[in-house]
Amino acid sequence: MSSLNLKEIAAGVKRTELTYLREMAKSRDEAQVIRIIPEKRTHVYLILDRTIFHPKGGGQPSDRGTIRSGNFELNVKKALYYQGVVVHWAKIITGEPLIGPVTCEVDWPFRQLVMRRHTAAHLLDHCLALETSRRVETTDSWLDEPCYVGYAGDPPNEDTLRRVEAHANGMVSHGGEVRIDYLTAEQGRALLQAAPNFVRLPELDEIRTVTIRGCAPIPCGGTHVSDIAQIGKISIIRAEPMPNLTFRLHFSV
Ligand SMILES: [Zn+2]
């Protein structure tokens, strides 16, 4: 990325409508380009009125894909979030990008993998709490490579890891709806104090929660599958001890 910073790129434009939050299964959508900032002839920063590209954040890697119109085609390498605005950083494949209508398409196999991993991460929080009979607190997570969730505390032993894995896979095989709700900030604070990521929550007017059937609601701005059956088999690879009494639970789906 260039010396231009997101603050300058996003200055003065209205907040992006975050279509990916409400319509997570949408891989293709129409939108309007409202700002274009060229970078070295070959790339552009582009802002849309609405987007299906989930930006990098909350442990979730950025969506990739294409944005095209009758006049041009772009390869979206990264979507980044800055104070309510999603900035797409893209390579120009053909033509010259213009303000106006475009068709957006997300790299769906990659997004689906991220959604399965993301939902699995929440399920692992739940099963780890049950199998260790304690509240879990997440420290961070990354859902690209390597794929892990970070937790506070000592790493569980191998026996516990296998029980957590079996518990999660038992739930996946039964299936269960993954529901999205929107709460006011007040409702959210009251309901979510026990959530594994409560301390990491940003200040928002509206809190989006994700609830896997049978689990407590979790505040989250990520994309998830609509039923845990879609996750497939979860494998816990290892628990890696990290500094400051934390560990990373590496897993695959
Ligand atoms: Zn989530």
SSE topology sketch:
Blueprint lengths: L5 H5 L6 E2 H4 L5 E12 L3 E6 L1 E2 L13 E4 L4 E10 L2 E10 L5 E7 L1 H25 L5 E5 L5 E5 L5 H17 L3 E7 H7 L14 E7 L5 E2 L15 E8 L3 E7 L1
Parallel strand pairs: 1-4
Antiparallel strand pairs: 2-3, 2-8, 3-7, 5-6, 5-8, 6-7, 9-10, 10-15, 11-12, 12-13, 14-15
Zinc ion (ZN) binds next to helix 3.
Q: Care to describe what's here?
A:
This protein has 253 residues and is α+β, with helices and mostly antiparallel strands. 23% of the residues lie in helices and 37% in strands. The strands form four sheets. It has a six-stranded antiparallel beta barrel with strand order 2-3-7-6-5-8. The protein starts with 5 loop residues before the first helix and ends with a strand. Zinc ion is lined by residues 118, 122, 210, 220, 222, 224.
Shape: elongated
* N-to-C series of helices and strands: HEHEEEEEEEHEEHEHEEEE
Bound molecules: zinc ion
The structure class reads alpha+beta
> Count of helical segments?
5
Radius of gyration: 19 Å
Q: What oligomeric assembly is this protein in?
A: single chain
Quick rundown:
With 253 residues, this protein is of the alpha+beta class. Helices cover 23% and strands 37% of the residues. Strand 9 and strand 10 form a beta hairpin.
